[in-house]
Amino acid sequence: MTHLDTALDTALDTAHAPPRFHALRRFARAFAQRPSGLAGLGILLAFGLLALCAPLFIGDDQLDVVKVDGPLLAAPSGDYLLGTDQAGRSILLMTIWGARSSLAIGIIATLLTVLLGSAIGLLAGHYQGRIGKALMHVTDWFIALPSLPLAISLSAVIGQGSASITIAIAVTSWTGTARLIRAQTLAVEARPFIERAKALGASDAQVMLRHVLPNVAPLILVSSTLTVASAILSQATLTFLGLGDPISVSWGSMLNAALAQGAVSAGDWWWLLPPGVAILIVVLGFTLTGRAVEHVLNPRMVSGS
Asked: Residues of the chain with pLDDT > 90: what percent?
């Protein structure tokens, strides 16, 4: 086979490839040209891999305060790279295991937030009459409420645990996504192809799901990547305040236990720094990834930067 035949076959394969494949490939190429986005994605992959593989090398006897037999409040050493807590548990293993709870709650809360905010934004943007005004009044009412006290109140009312924290974060974080999607929905529905679709008899559901939603999907993706960072911070804050599962190990619960045991006054820095630094790095990873995705999907931002 000659080089001309090979080139012709490649061109034919490319021509028959679906448009979404071309868009995905263009997105991957543009994203790969942003070092900050690749760094953030690398951070997230590293923490995600550690969280998934943690049960393979961390057993219950290493996290259970009854079964563990390590030295109490030992400073970092060769045996315990990040020291131990008041029960003799390894801070390094607890930090790795805490990624599972913190990332899981942050991601699930973000999914609920994006689903709720996107649905309300689409409905408020499409139905611009009484329904849209009522939805925006509800959104403005939630924006006026302080998010942290509201999340604390919801967690206390629903009950202590990971599920209550996830619901509290979702209920108090959807307003920004709703207003963003509503604004984009209004812009999309002002385009001529929406008028043509309505003239051809498209129903409201078809207009929103087939025509508007694909056009606002990139904005939903950007919003979700940036919302995860704030969700993880909210999860750490609520668990630090003692509203999480008292049995589960998370970064917020580690900081709560360190404060309760007087690690600050005792100078046990190795108990405080690892969970705090882990939160900082993961939030930075999501922020860098989200900003890179935003730059790739928003040409006006790329040209202005």
From this structure: 27
Buried b / exposed e across 118-139, counting CB within 10 Å, b at 16+?
A: bbbbbbbbbeeeeebeebbeeb
| This model's pTM is above 0.85 | no
CA distance 238 to 159: 12
Residue 22: how many other CB atoms lie within 10 Å: 11
Per-residue confidence (pLDDT) for residue 41, from 0 to 100? 93
Q: Which CATH number is correct for 42-67+80-298, 1.10.1040.10, 3.40.50.10490, 1.10.3720.10, 3.30.70.360?
A: 1.10.3720.10
Report the C-alpha dihedral over residues 190, 23, 181, 101, rounded to 10 degrees: 170
Give the Cα separation of 14 and 36 in Å (integer): 30
Q: What is the pLDDT of residue 48?
A: 93
Could you give the CA distance from residue 16 to residue 179 in angstroms, rounded to a whole number?
A: 38
Q: Are 282 and 102 in contact (CB under 8 A)?
A: yes
Per-residue tokens: 192: 């001529």
- Is the predicted pLDDT of residue 304 greater than 60, yes or no? no
**Structure-token pair, residue 90:** 């390894």
Q: Which residue has 């408020």 as its token pair?
A: 124
HEC string of the chain?
CCHHHHHHHHHHHHHHCCHHHHHHHHHHHHHHCCHHHHHHHHHHHHHHHHHHHHHHHCCHHHCCCCCCCCCCCCCCCCCCCCCECCCCCEHHHHHHHHHHHHHHHHHHHHHHHHHHHHHHHHHHHHCCCHHHHHHHHHHHHHHHCCHHHHHHHHHHHHCCCHHHHHHHHHHHHCHHHHHHHHHHHHHHHCCHHHHHHHHCCCCHHHHHHHHHHHHHHHHHHHHHHHHHHHHHHHHHHHHHCCCCCCCCCCHHHHHHHHHHCCHHHHCCHHHHHHHHHHHHHHHHHHHHHHHHHHHHHCHHHHHHC
Amino acid at 175: T
